[in-house]
Amino acid sequence: MKGRLIAIGDIHGCLGALEALLEAIAPTPLDTIVTLGDYVDRGPDSRGVITRLCRLREETQLVPLIGNHEQMMLDVLRGRAPYQSWLPHGGIATLESYEFAGDLNFLPSEHRAFLESLVDYYETPTHFFVHANYDPQLGLDAQSPEMLRWSSLREYLPAAHQSGRIAVVGHTANPEGQILDMGHLIALDTFCYGGGYLSALDVLTGEVWQAAEVQRPVQW
User: Fold this and answer.
1) Reduced 3-state DSSP string for 49-100
2) With bands split at pLDDT 50, 70 and 90, how would you rate the model's confidence at 83?
3) Which of 2, 7, 21, 5 is nearest to 215 (CA)?
4) Do residues 77 and 45 touch, judged by C-beta distance below 8 A?
5) Residues 16, 18, 22, CA angle at the centre, nearest 5°?
6) Would you give the end-to-end CA distance of the chain in angstroms?
7) Residue 2 above 90 pLDDT?
8) At residue 105, what are phi and psi to the nearest 5 degrees?
9) Per-residue pLDDT reduced to its tens digit, 5-27
10) Which residues contact 150 (CB under 8 A, 6 or more apart)?
């Protein structure tokens, strides 16, 4: 890998924080940026976030993972779940950002294609990336969707993975806005939509960027 390997935590519709973070990171075509899922719901501009991520694909090597919020949204759009299963979890904010008027075909085709392209995990020789959690005894291709997308670190804190790789996850928000680094596991959801930060980490150097939704980013 010639460029940087950077992970970005749960965005949840916080376009301002995402823009500030990307301005500070200044991604290049050689960099790989892994977004850990939960791009939509709860924050003010889910539509803007998806638009920005679609554009980011043209600027760098983007690896977008699927989070439980994208899964809920897709289940509704595919007719596999009632809309009531999504709306209490931030779906109303997403629909408002798309100026929803009652037609479930509200997504621009580029946005639907983006959501359909999301992947469950990404791995390198030293790290692996999932949205939520993992079973340390199973390979990534054998993990259940429940574990990858829904399992909270508060309910199940895994041991080191059998592969020896370091896990990088999102999903479990830290209300104090701090990154959790346990050595074998790094958790990057720092509660941006709730007043914390959107966090990014260069997993090879340890460089960190954080941005609040209405503030400039800090770097350390």
Assistant:
1) HHHHHHHHCCCCEEEEECCHHHHHHHHHHCCCCCHHHCHHHCHHHHHHHCCC
2) confident
3) 21
4) no
5) 120
6) 23
7) no
8) -90, 45
9) 999 999 999 999 999 999 999 99
10) 68, 132, 171
Cβ neighbors of 81 (< 8 A, separation 6 or more) are: 72, 75
Crossing angle (nearest 10°) for helices 109-116 and 68-77: 120
Q: How confident is the model at residue 199 (pLDDT cuts 50, 70, 90)?
A: very high
Residue 220's SS3 state is coil
CATH 3.60.21.10 fits 5-125+187-219, yes or no: yes
Q: Report percent pLDDT > 90 for the chain.
A: 92
In the chain, pLDDT over 70 holds for what percent of residues? Answer: 96
Give burial (CB, 10 Å; 0-12/13-18/19+) of 205.
Answer: exposed
Residue appearing with tokens 């966090």: 199
Within 13 A of 117's CA, how many CA atoms are on the CB side? 14
